[in-house]
What we know:
two-stranded antiparallel ribbon, 2 domains, 4-stranded mixed sheet, alpha+beta, DUF1064 domain-containing protein
Amino acid sequence: xxxxxxxxxxxxxxxxxxxxxxxxxxxxxxxxxxxxxxxxxxxxxxxxxxxxxxxxxxxxxxxxxxxxxxxxxxxxxxxxxxxxxxxxxxxxxxxxxxxxxxxxxxxxxxxxxxxxxxxxxxxxxxxxxxxxxxxxxxxxxxxxxxxxxxxxxxxxxxxxxxxxxxxxxxxxx
Length: 173
């Protein structure tokens, strides 16, 4: 394929400029003697390294982080990562209650199987699970808590399936 000089794109492909540095006299002598081009062009290749100077819009788009769907911010406390600040704050309150002896058996991210794995149209589907934010014992009864900012349709279905199994979820807003 022949491409006119100065062409920068062919279809969707970008063409590299022949930006190899000129060979010194010593390098040219090596080239003439061996037939192998010396390493004069082993430098930086913008396109191959994904840093094409001609496309700054792509670079800036990659660096900006997209905010989460419900604007929650992941955070950390005592080496534990939480899905939101509200969940972290509730954990701190529950830890205080645990230390005071008001609750016991405090656990995070406890999974409940709502429906067993199935095969649909020949494809294996995993078990349907609900993951509670916190589970603990208060006055001899198990309490299942979920810290919610937005009650989604998916959560409503899972709450319904939990209730069908006789398990009530306490929603913390």
